[in-house]
C-alpha cells in the first residue's frame, strides 16, 4: 500500500485544516498512510475539523484527552475539532491506515445518525467494502470534474454509512451471537417457495421462539409478515412491468391460491391486483 494524500483545494495544505460554517458538509482532505518502520504522528494542538482514522493493519498507541488506548486493526476512531491527539505504532509492526478530514454544520449530525461515537476506538472489522469506498473517494480527487465537490461529499456519507452499519452489525453479533444474515439472505433468494420458521431458525442454529424474538427486534415484523410483504412487493413490480395474469403472478411470488393472493393484496394496498395494474 502506498502513501497518498489528497486535498480538496488543489495542494493548499493550509486550507486542508479548517472549520467551515457556510455549508453542511465539506471534505478538507483524505489519504492513506503505510509505514514499515517505527513512527509517531498526530496533532498536538488538535485540528479545526473532524479527523477520522481507519486502521486496517497493525496497531497504534493513541494518546488523547489525558488517556491512552490501543488502536487495533479493524478499528475506527474519530476525533472532533480541537482535540489534541498523538499516536505511534507498536514497535516493529507494519501499519496501514486510511484518514479523512471533514467539516461543516452537519458533520456532527452525520456521525450521530451513523451512531459513530467520538474519541474512542470503534470495532468495524477490515471490510473490503469500506476499503473500496475510500478508493472511490480517492478516484474522485483524481478526476476533479465539475461535480467534484458534490461527489466527495457523497463519498463521505457513503463511508460513514458503511462504518455505521459495520459497527452495528458487529455490536449485534457480539451481543447475542446471531446476526440473522443467513436467514434474511435465504428469504430474499427463496421467497417464492414455501418457507417455514423452523427452517429459518435452523439456519441460525437457534430455537424457533428465540428466532421469532430476534427477527422482530431486527426487522420490526414477524417472519411470516416479512415474507408476505416481500412477496407482495415483488407482485407489484410484476403487475406494473409484465403482462402476466394475476394467477401467474400469484404463483411466481409464492402464493398457491389466486383468491387468497387477491384477498391478501387487497387488505395490504386497499385495492385488488387488477385495479392496481390499471
From TrEMBL:
GO terms for molecular function: DNA-binding transcription factor activity; sequence-specific DNA binding. InterPro entries: AraC-bd, Homeodomain-like_sf, HTH-like, HTH_AraC, HTH_AraC-typ_CS, Tscrpt_reg_AraC-type_HTH. SMART domains: HTH_ARAC. It comes from the Bacteria. Pfam families: AraC_binding, HTH_18. Keywords: DNA-binding, Transcription, Transcription regulation. Residues 181-278 form the HTH araC/xylS-type domain. This is AraC family transcriptional regulator. It comes from Congzhengia minquanensis. The lineage of its organism: Bacteria, Bacillati, Bacillota, Clostridia, Eubacteriales.
